[in-house]
Amino acid sequence: MSQIAVIGGGITGLTAAFRLREQGHTVTLYEAGPRTGGVIGTVRENGYLAERGPNTLLETSPRIGELIADLGLTARRLDSNPDAETRFILRRGRPVAMPTSPLSFFTSRLFSLKAKLRLLAEPFIKASPPDIEENLADFVRRRLGQEFLDYAINPFVGGVYAGDPARLSVKEAFPKLHALEQKYGSLIKGQIGGARERKRSGTVSKQNAKKISFDHGLQVLTDTLQEKLGDAVHLRTPVIRIEKTSNALRVTTRPADGERTKSFDAVLLALPAHRLADLDIGPAAAPPLARLAEIHHPPVASVTLGFRREDVAHTLCGFGTLNPEIENVRTLGTLFTSSLFPGRAPDGHVTLSSYLGGTRAPELALLPADELIDITLADLRHIYGISGRPTFRHHTAFPKAIPQYEVGYAQFKSLMSRCEENFPGLHIAGHSRHGISLSDSIVSGHQA
Q1: What does the mean pLDDT of the chain come to?
Q2: Residue 232, burial from CB neighbour count under 10 angstroms (0-12, 13-18, 19+)
């Protein structure tokens, strides 16, 4: 079996290292920071639970459930509350439930009659040429109209990518959407045909996938992976150089006690794009992945606040609310975290997790914590009728958060492929290549 180095201790690297060890390989995982898990992190305090990064894991692939079972975590798994499925969109300052069926769509207050009638034309709109790369805003205007862009796609993109539909590539950021149009000529027809294909493959759309967490939060998953890997994990050990020799890849690290070099049969890079860009991979005149530094990573902040239940007028019976840019509020959206899973707040209290910044307002994400909490609280009071002061506060900021798969992003994927071709034995995985969701990253690690 092979000696393999995994560089990066986020969920992609941890998953890959765990699966490689299962296959009998000798694995060494290098993590530059003091902990594994990357953006996944859970805070517990006085009966409250807050996630630093993602709040849920979507079971879009059989690989997700398999990993949970193989780690012995089935008993600690939590599926989201079935009564918390309703998703809201802010319209005219108030949360309006998103329709979940054709009948509810045509009776919904979320869209005007004009927008609803416009949707009837969608199956008859010609697909774009396959070689044309279209941004998401143009794609939606062409197929569904401006109102759907404003009140469905814009808030969705703000909530998922913290991005801008006018910059994101349909082909790269939403490849399944692009494929539906190309294969079926219509999104409506494609939804029907795509459902049949997902059933055959065992995959589930993100819209219908089960939402998962664990009794003590998502960090249970990454902590368990690290525990299973044991002494294969080397924390506070940045990799400073990778060199190709005649029959191996030589990895140089710089832990606290000085530089060390070790040879491996293969190396998996499971790092964010901006870290890959700085990596010295040789022999080469310059870092071969340097152009990955051009990938846009807007900053994002999360603010989780706890309240007495009696101080919140809204029922909070649902998943949360996404805020369209056209509504002119400062938060991107809010999850009803204590409605989703038990154990997120003490009895008689609730938690709400809100997000700020992104491409829409990057300057907000890096404000001091007190200012961000005040901004968030002002939005929450207006939208949900909150009267009391928070009983819990938690804030996390990510200066470089989610990679934006913008128009032209294919060049960065091609760069990663060329790097692998030029350095046999070197492999690249993670959210800068295979999708930005937590489930995408797990599947990427498994495939790697």
Answers
A1: 94
A2: middle
